[in-house]
């Protein structure tokens, strides 16, 4: 295996830290939240951020300094979230509920089911652009509030007598439909081609007249192309991709791999297709050259910001939305204004199933606990041409099985891959 990814992937694992002394250690505690593991984010820093958010909540009694005050229990509830995304959703939903309580002059600790039913009706009217909110959004808000009440009931010895959200009927959510804007495989290829063109276009002025600004734009184009290929080829969630560090590139059984934590904090490892490796090689090679170090010496986020600071920052999800839609507009895609990184995850599942990859293999690749979730991602599952492919074949014609199926093109992470040359 050659190239910069091989050098990074073959780095030795760091030695295990020595046991701390009996005195409290001053070394920052590395915090791992579900699928997010952020170097440098200490437990103290996260607790301080959550405490500041909880302190700003209306409608709750003041913190009396005891271990089991409502505000401290609320902070603990947020801290126990399985992932960074769950924490953000809980925080947003609870803050919305408590602000509604403040407007209604309602004590949330003595609220009754009828109050939560009224909150549901109010929340349904709070959609964007004057529209009603999506059923999934309202259902998630009620689930977050219900989880908060359950946590308080378990820890307050009767001070919070009931979970009023448990008795409220939640809006039905169509398990067979997703509001995510879809992409055809041809449109994915158009996106990838646009990313290639942007990297080429930005390379020319940088090589002709080098400057820090031009180099930053060129490096950003290489980074964006590598991230786009990773999302298209592996079908990762955007958080799973952005939370990765360079050190999580590895080498296993003849394959260059990426280690990460999936939904629910499950450790996972996926082989990187050659299509993705090529883009990562170009990006990490250019990034290392800019820092005047070797590729194997790179540290920090896998997908980093291109600022002039001493340490690269981590690329943020809103920035990905912005450049993905800009790139889609440049590629002439009709759905450019509605696309999200999750659109590529849907396209991955659709492409794999269209090429005959068994449902259970796609399910494993996407990290779904339930195959019905995987089917919802398959936008082409009702295609009549595919129905013909499922039909019994005439004598003498072979049936396509999982071992015979191959996914071609950019959506190819779930098929059997050739070993990457060592």
Question: What report would you give on this structure?
Answer:
With 422 residues, this protein is mostly helical. The chain is 48% helix and 6% strand. The chain has 15 helices and five strands. The strands form two sheets. Strands 3-4-5 form a three-stranded antiparallel sheet. Strands 1-2 form a two-stranded antiparallel ribbon. A hairpin with a 2-residue loop joins strand 1 and strand 2. The longest helix is centred in the middle third of the chain and has 24 residues, at 185-208. The chain is globular. The relative contact order is 0.11. Residues 1-41 and 384-422 have low confidence and may be disordered.
Q: Brief description of this entry?
A:
With 422 residues, this protein is mainly alpha-helical.
